[in-house]
Amino acid sequence: MSPAIKCLCLLAVVAFLFVTELVPLAMTAVGAAIACWALELVPQNQIFLGLADSTVVLFGGMFVVGAAMFYTGLAQKIGGQVVKLFGTSENSLMFGIMVIAALMSSVLSNTGTTACLIPVVLGICSQAKISPSRELMPLAFACGLGGTITLIGTPPNILANVALKAAGMEHLQFGFFEYAYIGVPITLAGIIYMMFVGKYLLPDDTANFDTEVEQEIEANVTSTRKQIICGVIMVGVIGCMATGVVVLEIAAVVGAVLCVLTGCISEKQAYNSIDWITIFLFAGMIPVASAMNTTGAGKLIAEATVKLMGGNPSPYLVTAVLFCLAVLLTQFMSNTASKALLCPVGIALSAQIGASPKAVLMAVLIASSCAFASPVGTPPNTLVLGPGGYKFMDYVKAGTGLVFVCLVVSICVIPVVWPFFPAT
Fold first, then answer.
1. Is the distance from CB of 31 to CB of 238 less than 8 angstroms?
2. What is the pTM assigned to this prediction?
3. pLDDT one-digit tens code per residue, 263-296
């Protein structure tokens, strides 16, 4: 059996266990990492390399900074102000949270934006007496959608330009705000969907509030000085992330250390604030995503799909099929990998049917950012897993419809903005 087939079989088992949760999600992910080594899909020294991944380090640091905002009462204070602005209605708060998250993630890292806003959203939910499970998933989805608005909204967006340059088509490269032509419509459509349809598919688990933490906070006499210090640290972390003065994970870890050293959070509280399910779930899936890329499993899926379309498929069919393929792949492998894999395929197919590659490439880019139906498809989804108390199927229920909305909007908008056969 070839490595690619082994990898696809492993992925099928992992997907089954994720959906059924017969085994806890984190244990499935760790088991999958070990299976990658047992099946000789990745070297032994790469099995647990995911635990040292920069994104995992970012997670850990931001969990501590977020907890410090909560323990000092700063998150609740900010939440109170947001509640005053938008009211206590679930719909108005969801709208406010998603708009703010989408705008921030259009120019900042969507992972960093999610990490920074989680404690604020928890504070909002605490003030409005709403379960966090009702607002955290919309937060993650909005960060994913907002990342499609600009060239830097999510770093892998630039891969299309890299592929075009490699194909000798530099004159067709996308501009910085060109993504907004499709990014803004799907973001607006996504927010509307979540407010009027998606909210009915979200869990409503009031037990998600950490009562022990709440009681500990209420027992303290909250220090205004510590709130100010914590606020300055958070602003500093966000500033560093926004300007790129230092990389995301270093900003997060330095922020976490400062929170402990200044007494905003105790060392014990800092350790307890790290959601280890999130850490091991994300870290465990990194070898699987790597194996899909290195063994050619992802490429095998792409080639089989292309073959099914026949020799001279319609540009609309090519766009729709590549969109669906990218969506499927990105639920279990990084969007960077799925974009890197499918961008050259899209360019080749466009050349085969004599069409401009821009429409097909944009469909691949947008689809690869639509990792809404899985907690492991994108870091924002993984980050809210623990705080929201979500199960794998919660993402499938709420996220699948959102993916379909993005598909419909993309098929309607992309060919209009980037015609398949532009007039010369």
1. no
2. 0.72
3. 999 999 898 888 787 788 778 877 877 787 778 7
DSSP 131-197: -GGGTHHHHHHHHHHHTTSSTTSSGGGGHHHHHHHHTT-GGGPPPTTTTHHHHHHHHHHHHHHHHHT
Distance CA 227, CA 246 (A): 24
Nearest to 413 by CA among 72, 166, 183, 118: 183
> Mind listing the pLDDT tens digit for each residue in 176-218?
778 889 999 999 999 999 999 999 999 976 555 555 555 555 5
CA pair distance 36, 40, nearest whole angstrom: 6
Q: Which pair of tokens denotes residue 417?
A: 């903005």
Which residue type sits at 257? Answer: V
State the DSSP H helix or E strand holding residue 5, giving kind and residue range, or none if neither: helix 3-20
Does 153 score more than 70 pLDDT? no
List the one residue out of 298, 329, 295, 293 whose CA is nearest residue 40: 295
Whether 282 and 276 have beta carbons less than 8 Å apart is answered as: no
Rounded to an integer, what is the distance from CA 176 to the centroid of its chain? 21
